[in-house]
Each structure stands twice: as structure tokens, then as C-alpha cells.
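Example record

One chain of 273 residues, shown exactly as stored in the release files.
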Amino acid sequence: MKAAFQGTNGAYSEVALNKYFQNVIEGTGYNTSEEVFDALKTHKVDYGFLPIENSIVGNVNVNLDLFYKYNFQIIDEVYLPIQHCLLAHPGTKLKEIKKVYSHPVALDQCRQFFIKYGIETIVDYDTAGSAKNLSKREEKDAASVASSLCAKYYNLDVVQTDIQQVKNNITRFCVFVDKDKVPSDLVKQKTSLIFSAGHGPGALLKCLEQFAKYDINLTKIESRPIPENPFAYVFHVDFLGNTDDDNIARCLQDLKKVTGMIKILGSYPIGKK
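Predicted C-alpha cells for this chain:
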């Protein structure tokens, strides 16, 4: 069986995927999230595996938007502590490093470290990709910010670990499948859905009141524009409980009366942070 993730080998997505599947499922990297969804749609893989939010930078909007576009079901969530590592060619010392390559978000999260050591930052397209590119160049004064897994893939040394200034840096990933591949014994503790609200006064409030009326705990709400419908929005909501519960089923029935659309993305276990 195979699982698709976005990124080059050694990406944090692959680290999280290996952690979740305990290395018994083969991970296949794709350049874009769209390719991950397409791979699952065309049955090239059995699972999709993508990040949807980070504790520091917030949502991965492109992936939220793709869940609106495609009809897959989330079956689990995975939390991965992000540990940025400084990687360089074998034998390179920290004092020899003058420049570093990586994704702009990773570079920004390690900004204080680079200021302290006077290292120039250079943007690359992603973390694992920067490590792969570095391994092909003879730059003894250069480094990359990426996962420790990249060091194994690309024959690089880990010069220093945990170089980000905010140590509690966590990314949340979702595992998703075709609707007919949802496990029958799946533990359902948390639900994700998308809904649209009308344009009248208090339209969103009327939607949220349904959750309050049935004492349902929302853990997240996020608005996203609909590209095909300018200045119209959908709302991504996570809440505790599952759609098989009578209480939640009644809530969703009432919610349908005040929304234009409801799309259930899945009920799944609560991931361990």
C-alpha cells in the first residue's frame, strides 16, 4: 500500500507519515498538493497525507481549499513537533557556514540563530529540496535548514538541531482516503466540515448558534474564499464528537436550514499533540 505526501524525500511530511504508519506504508512524494489529491483520485495511492496547519504560521490554505474541491474523507490527524536542523557537507563546522538555503517560512522561524552567527539566508523552494540541492553543490560554506531525515537521504551532517526560536513548533497533518475506504472500525471523536452562510445580517451567527444550542465544542473555525464565486466564503469547522451521535445529527439537520451548503470532511480520532 502507498501514501502520497507533498515534497521531496526527507520533507517533514514524510517524517510525519513514517511516524504515523510506523514505516510499514510506502510514502511517495509529489511536487504539489494538487498532485497528491489527483494521485488518490486515480488510485495510484491508497492514502493522502498533507499538512493543514502549523502552530506558528497558521493554516496551509491551499490544502484547505483542496478539501473543498475534492470528495475525500479524513480518517485521522497527526501532530508533528518541527525540529529544524542545520545541515551541511560532511566535516563542515558551524563557524565555517556563511549562507543557508531553505523555505522562507523555515528561514524566518530560525532568524535569530542566523543573526547570532552572521549567516546569510537564501530562499529555496522547500526545506527538503534545499538539502537535496545543497548535496549537489560544492559549497563548503553553505548549509540548509531541513529535517534530520534529509541528512540520511543526502549524505549531509547535522551541524546543529532545534535552531528555531520558538521550540513549541507543531504541524498538524491529515490522513485521508476515498469515501468507500473509510475503515469500518474507525474511532470517531472529532469532526471536520465545511459550510457556507447566507449574506443576510447575522447569517454566520445563526450558523454558529446551532452548535451552541446543542452544546458542541468548536475547536477551530476558519473562513476561505470561493475562487469561482468572488467575495463568497466557506467556513472550515472542527468540533468534538462525530456525525453518528444523535446530538450532532440533530445539530446538522438544523444547520442545513440556515446554510447554503454543508460538506462533511470526516470524523476521526483525536490526534496526540
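Notes: Residues 246-258 form the longest helix (13 residues).
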